[in-house]
Specification:
- This protein is an alpha+beta fold.
- The protein folds into four domains: about 110 residues, Trypsin-like serine proteases (Thrombin, subunit H), CATH 2.40.10; about 100 residues, Thrombin, subunit H, CATH 2.40.10; about 90 residues, Pdz3 Domain; about 90 residues, PDZ domain (Pdz3 Domain).
- The strands form five sheets. Strands 21, 22, 23, 24, 25, 26 and 27 form a seven-stranded antiparallel sheet that branches. Strands 1-2-3-6-5-4 form a six-stranded antiparallel beta barrel.
- Strand 18 and strand 19 form a beta hairpin.
- Its main location: periplasm.
- It is found in: Periplasm.
- One of its GO terms (cellular component) is periplasmic space.
Length: about 475
Amino acid sequence: MPPGTAPVLADAVHVQTAQVPGFADLVERVSPAVVSVKVKGKIQPAADEGFDNLPNNPQLRRFFKEFRGFGDQGGQFGMRRFGHRDHNNDRPRPVAQGSGFFISEDGYLVTNNHVVSEGSAFTVVTNDGKELDAKVIGTDPRTDLAVLKVDGGGKFTYVDFADDSKVRIGDWVVAVGNPFGLGGTVTAGIVSARGRDIGAGPYDDFIQIDAPVNRGNSGGPTFNLNGQVVGINTAIFSPSGGSVGIAFDIPASTAKQVVEDLMKSGSVQRGWLGVEIQPITSDIAESLGLKSEKGALVSSAQDASPGKKAGIVAGDVITQVDGKDVASPKDLARMIGAYAPGKSVDVTLWRDGKNETVKVDLGTLPSSDKQASNKDTPAAPAKADMLANLGLTVTKSENGKGLVVTDVDPDSDGADRGIQPGDIITAVNSTEVNDTGDVNKAMADAVKSGRKAVLMQITRDDSNRFVAVPVEKG
């Protein structure tokens, strides 16, 4: 290179490709409506009995103070431990934190019931860092929802609920919330599944998403690309405690109805039928002559309940309510719960091989579900008989009603269906049985009618259930 000549440098790499659409515009619009919820409660510090009896060893005493949470050292993210001790035991202390979102301009907001259930004082932190006091308007533990109201603060940016019936598996969603107290955190993913039942309650119908959701996201919204709330973060599946891409949202349709009730009256009043129900398996459907496994099998009608007053009995299959098909026991619980107490509904039953309809005046769902009980569970007499084709040894019950199972052949059809010693067989195909002859006759009648199984009513631990057992054809 000649002297005085400047070197020529190559241009930096720059690749021009089609820009992938992002979520920035959406997040910018909805973030002001999302808040962090801080919860304080009156907690009693751990008792100090025995602490003064420790040896006079400074290192040992410091260890016990730190172990029991009384030290001043910072916790995760430098936060002070909530157990710091002082002499004012009545002062509310932090017990929980979560997320929420405004649903009205005047400061109503939604979060999870489990976020606020242990609290006595509530603070809402807005997207711009402003802290506002709030009060609980109402809670609904059955759906894990709560409504709070901010005191003052002017007008708030708020969001609407989406029509979640239009949500499809594979749709993009964006979750905004307060994981680990960090606040204003945005994650994205897709709808992974719908109608999930995770055993949280009788109205489980969760939307599953794979957007990362962690502790502190509870009560926060999941948005569609139109900025509408399709679900409320309420639970995660996590072996480790952190996100593994499986989160569950309360659907907007459920939340919208519950929130409206909480804003009006502070509680949710649900219709009550008062029957214990169980799913219908293929064997049970066969034993009852049903063409499908849809519906809910009544295992018992609770005393003085609306269902019992209307004539619903154990062995009935509820197939419709007001002309709407019942797909499963969960479906029935949601349908009945959606009606107001006092509402009169037509309940269609499958009974004795045909449909019947009864009119039921629904009651009010009790605060805790009542259980049917049988106080007179008898002890078995000494003499035993065999139901050899089922592998069951039975005896007459002490009160003469039903047969007590005393032994089960582990390789039998009875064992395969979950029948256990101590179970009481009270009926077969809706016919009461008091000896083995009654059972054998019911099974023979089933064979004559072309059935492959019979429906056996079992009492166990003061509750009823049904099992379908196969019949032998001669």
